[in-house]
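Reopening closed ticket. The problem is back. First fold of the pair:
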Amino acid sequence: MTPYFTDPEVRAQIDAVLEANHIAVAYLGFDSTKTERENIKVEERKSLRAIKHLDPEFINRLIRDSDK
């Protein structure tokens, strides 16, 4: 098991970033441009990479899944 599932502090930190990413994506509307959508995707990956040291295995899975 990765630290995300075993360490409550790590989970809280990762969840905070995931929530911020979710909010950013939620604010995109139907009228958002392709550039705006791409910018959010880039920022999402940057924020995940910034916390990668907390749980590399879990974060790598999220980054890989978001690239699809």
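Second fold of the pair, where the issue appears:
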Amino acid sequence: MRPARSRLLRYGLAVALPAATTLAILCVEQFLAKGILVLYIPSIMVSTWYGGLGPGLVATLLSVGTTDYFFIEPLRSFTITSSDDLVEVVVFSFVAILTSVLNTAQKRAQQALVDSQEKVRLVFDVTKAANEAETVGNAFRFALRRLCEGGIWIYAHVFLLEQPPQEKLTPSGYFHVSDPSRFGSLRAASLRTPHRRPELIAGRAMARGGVEWTDDLASDPAERAYQPFLEAGVRTVAAFPVNAGRETIGVIECFALERIEKSQAFSNLLESIGLELGQVVERQQLQEGYSDAVWEQQRVLAQELHDGLGQELTGLGFMSQTLMEKLKGSEEEPSALRLTNGLKRALEQIRSLAKGVSPVAPDSEGLRTALQQLAETTASTFGVACDFDAPGKFPVEDSKVALHLYRIAQEAVTNAVKHARPSRIAIRLESGVQGLTLSVTDNGAGLVRGSGIAVGSGLRIMRYRAAAIGAHLTVEDAPGAGTRVACVLANDVLGRSAHEAGSPQ
């Protein structure tokens, strides 16, 4: 519908301009002797520049026809009897056609230059955002938004590949709609559409490992599955894979109302975006692999300290206690006492070190217990009143998710003590419509005066941990005074596996 309206406007202008020029000439015809055809040049140039070669040729034909009919003898006739008039018409026609061709070529060259600059800027922006993004989700969201900002694509979304044996594409939470009031229904339609591997456009892009393109969705073999998109006026669909190394992890699908022919430059652009996003995924996979290795090494070390050295020190403690009882009343009793107390302190330090590596017990209530101990330790160590409140039961079965949440709370408490100088800190764990919320609120200097609490590595670490478990972190001024750090974990995330949730550090 939109291309037809545009075509009507372009050709309508090509008719209107020569007609307006003819009326103007008729009004001043008595003052003109020769060169009437030259007056039509501006209307031809405008028609060509605005509408292209086709409207330019239409304007040329109308200009010659009206001149012959109204201003060349015999009047009110399309017959030309004078050789001079015939030469003038031929020369004018040649010049007008040449002008239309050159104008069209110039406009296409300028548009190509603008398009190439926009494409380079798009790839640059996506590359920059991908390198700076803290999470894969942030990179995907920016890329989709940037694609839809160009005025071509009205809706774009990401499908992720499920692991074998299913190996099918499923809708993700990453999408962008250029005009939600007009095209918001497309999101619901994409969630209802089954995207099995070999069949639909996104599936074909994944299967061939390259850009899949259709500029007429109504004639596509899978058009029945895209009925809601056709009803919204979608005509062009492009899909391209996101590859992490040699592995395809998902597909991005874009929709446009106009007919856009596939070109090599366009395909290269989309492939470049898929490559940049794939590198973000690959980088995160490497980070998670490194985090897994570090975490596993820490866990093994803590276990060896507790089970190995801890048990050895426990045995030595019993032996020293027995020795002290045997030496009771002798000159060596004080030495035996110092030996016994030293072994006890060493054992306590070993247990404390092992607990520091893994402060959250591997059970559903481990997070609650660890947060309670964090509040007590903060109050005793820093002399700041620290309360913990957790109305109801909130079992977190995934020990790695629980550890991430604990580390976020620990970092928020440390930031508050260091930078905000509060007199009270409140740690709260509660459940609501959004999901499980862990918050740390202090009554200190706040974000403005408490420099350092809203910036620096501490905040980046908290954001990384939140993103690793699919949570959303906010840092804002608390009501009244102070700062509130909140981490919201959606209910569906609580049931994910440790692999999906991420690996704590």
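Update: turned out to be a display glitch only; the data is intact. The two ends are 55 Å apart (CA to CA). The first strand starts at residue 153 and ends at 161. Please close again.
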